[in-house]
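Feature request disguised as a bug report, sorry. It would help if multi-protein outputs had a clear separator. Right now it looks like this:
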Amino acid sequence: MSDESGAALTPVKFAMVGYGFGGRYFHTPLLVAAPECDLVGVMTSSTERQALVAREVPGARTFGSLAELVDAGVEAVAISTPADTHSSVTEEALELGLAVVCDKPFAMSPDAARHTVELADARGLVLSPYQNRRWDSDFRTVQKLVTDGALGSVTRLESRFERWAPERGPGRAGGGTVLDFGSHLMDQALVLLGPATSVYAEWRIRDRGLDDDVFVAVTHASGARSHLMGSWSQSAPGPRYRVTGTKATYVLGPADTQEDLLLAGETPATLGERWGVEPPDMYGTLHTGTTSAEYATERGRWDLFYPTFARAVRGLNPPPVNPRDAVATANALEAARVSATTGAVVPVPAS
């Protein structure tokens, strides 16, 4: 592995902080598969998870604190702890001089997100929200269609994360579906269509007192609109995307399959160039009003996130996700929470 000049790139010494569902399946396999990263170990206080690490990540050590990671020479951490600890753990890591990848939601409030980003700036450290779904096969396809002009000017984005898995919804620490699925849905909408100016939202409060069956209507400064839907208790999920422009509409039913691959034990290392490649029966359709044609789905590339972050730590490129994007997302999601509570259209402050 080398940098753009051809010089050898020294792998970044990484540690995983947390080994729950996210750390175990969405981070550790990708870190292990990236030659640019050297996974030194995992920080977890759970004896059960320490045993899992020993069995599933050969050679990785377990640690009890961030300070122990620093003493072991770790340079960067990926944080996948309960959502309501993300800000405090990230800031402790930054204070210790560690570069940080923080899972979603990046913070529980806009003020907390802003404070963390300012701390990283002050310390001169690389910080990136783990918005890995920017590298979903389906979203990359939508981006290509927009960039190529195949849709014309986009007027409406309809985007869904809907599942029938009520037992897997976010717990109280996760803040509900607005912050859970909403972190990805809103991030993608802002990346595709630009800043939000106002939001209207609806939700259903489940028996645990947490929001679900979320609908968020976003008006963007460009004039385009996003309709974002998230649910853990939808027995008949709608299409992943319907994106309408002045020339055509793109509809995709099935969602990106990289999550399924990781849960099945596959990684970019085991599949190589087959990683993230969707089969033809997963393709969407491009409609012009008079014609309809199958449109090939772009390859999913979650495998690019950690190599890009490692190169950012070495000063070779920007981080994969600008941390200030997390502040913009937090502002829009906070407006959605206020709207769902009051029934009003809520303006989104500039980031």
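(second protein starts here, but nothing in the output says so)
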Amino acid sequence: MKWIKFEDGYRFPVKSWCEDVEPGALVQAANLAKHPAVVHHVALMPDCHQGYGMPIGGVIATEDAVIPSAVGVDIGCGMVAVETDIPAERLEDLSFRRSIHTKLKERIPVGDGVSHAQVQQWDGFEEYLDNNGNVADFPNTLDRKNLGTLGGGNHFLEIQRSDDGFVWLMIHSGSRNLGKRIEEFYHKKAMKLNRLYHVSLPDPDLAFLPMEEQEGHDYFRDMLFALRYAAENRRRMMKVFKETFSEFLPETAFLREVNIHHNYAAFEEHFGKKLCIHRKGATSAKADELGIIPGSMGTASYIVRGLGNPESFMSCSHGAGRCMSRTAACTRLTVEECDAAMSGIVCDRWQSYRKYGKGKGLPDLSEAPQAYKAIDDVIAAELDLIQPLVRLTPLAVLKG
């Protein structure tokens, strides 16, 4: 842990594994420390940066309440990594890696707003509807078409080399548009309830749902559905990933697999109480639990083992964390320096930045390695939370 703050107006302290927290994220952490539903302390992971309502890379506990924005809009976003027995030297040839990369692009829909042409079948849809009917528009046709697709932003598929010389496959993706709609739907309900009961909030973005109210139970039910959806989404993509990789290297054996969420809430025992732990851009790191901490598209990722540190609510970082906003990356970085950072890694080059604002029309450098914190520094800052087991470096990257 780097520091602890307990200032005037705080109900409890903020404990940080991030040495230099950006001002906006510090304000958000202070708001959480004043929040009427939050208990014990606020934990900031070393990849902490400003989010919506709550910092990304934040962990909090509540009693008998859930805060939708403290889970976030990409409910169930997470990682899956699979170890193979293929020596990385088999992929030394760039053109061979490019062939695998090209075939993956043909088989897995990638990018913002990109989905399958046809709806996908999954028993989970019917189970949800049979038990709950159609709540708002969960699930809808878009959710059925999005299942088994990567999405955009920082979501990725990677072929990686372990430090002991073997190939791993890794995916980062979540619940696509479903999680966003669930968060927005229940955040509005939370704001309405908090106004009804005259709750004083440090920030309206941190509106909460009491679990004694039906809305709290409904949110938790639909959040769990989004977690199932996100896990199934990754499972389907990894199945295609394995099949495609095996076409090029038929002798491949797939060994251990690690699959985790990093945007969710769960009721767990901490400090002698059953608490609702919110991990927004944070990963569970219970004792001996395996986890994944990815870096940027040009830097290392880690397979880790949790140490079960109670001070972080048995959590760790979910990645490197941004050090530069998307717009800032597009306006400050150059294509030349970003190409240099990706030297030797198979990937598509930079598209046009599609967002509004100063960066519109410029090359989209928002996911370049320079836009993220140094992953080795992040890992070094949390060695009281995790034990690094495997270091992985990218050979080929397919970005959303």
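Even a blank line would do. Unrelated, but nice: The longest helix spans residues 214-248.
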